[in-house]
Write a structure and sequence with these properties.
Number of strands: 12
Structural class: alpha/beta
CATH class: Alpha Beta
Shape: globular
Number of domains: 1
Strand order of the largest sheet: 1-2-3-5-8-9-10-12
Number of helices: 12
Strand content: 15-25%
CATH architecture: Alpha-Beta Barrel
Oligomer: single chain
CATH superfamily: Luciferase-like domain
Distance between the termini: 24 Å
Helix content: 40-55%
Order of helices and strands: EHEHEEHEHHEEEHEHEHHHEHEH
Radius of gyration: 19 Å
Largest sheet: 8 strands, parallel, barrel
């Protein structure tokens, strides 16, 4: 199976300079192909040190020039924030620069500060995402964008360069709320699973996605890609320490950035799920919730990490993984060792997993 490397470019405690963060993570990216990774992925974020990734296609173009076979993906491009013409142009160009290695991961966004910074009302995000996604997907296939919607009125324009190749099978979307899961099935795109809820709830979402996908598209849904933050060491105590320090700190930074305790989400159209989540956070406490988020990730000795990821493949019929090995306030030397241990001791076992069989159909 394919395994991708995710990069965060986090500077959440400002203990080092942004230059040092970029120098370190670019070094991981430059070595990733030789280490055996199949792809590079980075999220889109703006305005804070939570993740300093404002222009992911530009970064992926840099990776394209440094590599020959690695695929290049986004986890994710947030469509409501951007002009869809520019999004389509960026990914058409990236596909030419990389000779067909680009992957579009897309989503509708959750960071309230980012919506405010772009002056986009959060309550419009679901409709804006649907319209922009339909327009972008059409443009990636045809080289032409034209759309007449509530928020997007785009006269017909031809995009150049023309499409290098079809993007079918190379588009994935993150979905956490049940409504978003259905929307991704309607759009005929793959599902990107980012751990934010109990795995039994994820199993329900995957089932609903597959059922809806078959209903709408008349065929089985593609196998999902799963995003996992991994802490691995041959020293079991050190692996546990990485969980307790860095996975928990990453969870804390995520809760703070996304305002998971903000009950105002209940009154924002499309974010009712997060309003209910805020009630749960208030009931159990933010520290407990951060521990829960950390526990959704993967940590342990190499053989334990392999078994946990294999179990996930079997449970969800996973097609590929994206793993993050540098996160939170993890020192660079710890992140480098984590990265190298994963590449040497875990990655070969995952690449040996055969996922070429047909995807699971509807229940």
């Amino acid at each position: 199976m394919d395994v991708g490397l995710g990069l965060t470019f986090q500077n959440i405690k400002e203990g080092v300079s942004d230059i040092e963060v970029y120098r370190h993570e670019l070094s991981l990216a430059a070595r990733a192909e030789d280490q055996g990774f199949d792809s590079i992925w980075t999220p889109e974020h703006h305005f804070t040190g939570y993740m300093m990734t404002p222009n992911v296609p530009q970064f992926l173009s840099w990776v394209a020039a440094k590599t020959t076979r690695m695929k290049l993906g986004t986890t994710v491009t947030v469509l409501p924030w951007a002009n869809p013409v520019r999004v389509a142009e960026s990914f058409l160009l990236l596909d030419h620069l990389s000779e067909g290695r680009a992957i579009l991961g897309m989503g509708r966004g959750l960071g309230k500060g980012e919506f405010d910074g772009f002056k986009v009302p959060m309550g419009e995000s679901r409709s804006r995402f649907r319209e922009n996604a339909e327009a972008v997907l059409q443009a990636l296939e045809t080289g032409v964008m034209e759309y007449d919607g509530k928020y997007l009125q785009q006269p017909r324009v031809e995009l150049r360069p023309r499409p290098y190749a079809s993007y079918r099978g190379r588009v994935f979307a993150s979905a956490v709320s049940p409504e978003s899961v259905k929307l991704m099935a309607n759009l005929d795109v793959g599902l990107m699973i980012i751990a934010q809820k109990p795995w039994d709830r994820v199993a329900e979402d995957v089932k609903n996605y597959r059922d809806r996908f078959f209903e709408m598209q008349g065929r089985s849904a593609p196998k999902p890609v799963v995003v996992a933050f991994v802490a691995v060491s041959e020293d079991k105590a050190k692996a546990q320490e990485m969980h307790d320090k860095y996975l928990v700190e990453y969870a804390r930074s995520t809760s703070e950035f996304y305002q998971f305790g903000n009950k105002e989400f209940a009154d924002i159209e499309g974010y009712e799920y997060y309003g209910a989540l805020a009630n749960s956070v208030e009931k159990h406490g933010i520290d407990k919730f951060n521990e829960f988020l950390a526990d959704l990730q993967i940590w342990g000795r190499p053989e334990e990490v392999v078994e946990k990821l294999k179990a996930m493949v079997e449970r969800f019929d996973v097609g590929s993984f994206i793993v993050y090995t540098q996160f939170g306030d993890m020192p660079f030397e710890v992140g480098k060792e984590n990265y190298e241990t994963f590449a040497r001791k875990v990655l070969p076992h995952l690449k040996d997993i055969d996922v070429s069989g047909p995807p699971v159909g509807p229940s």
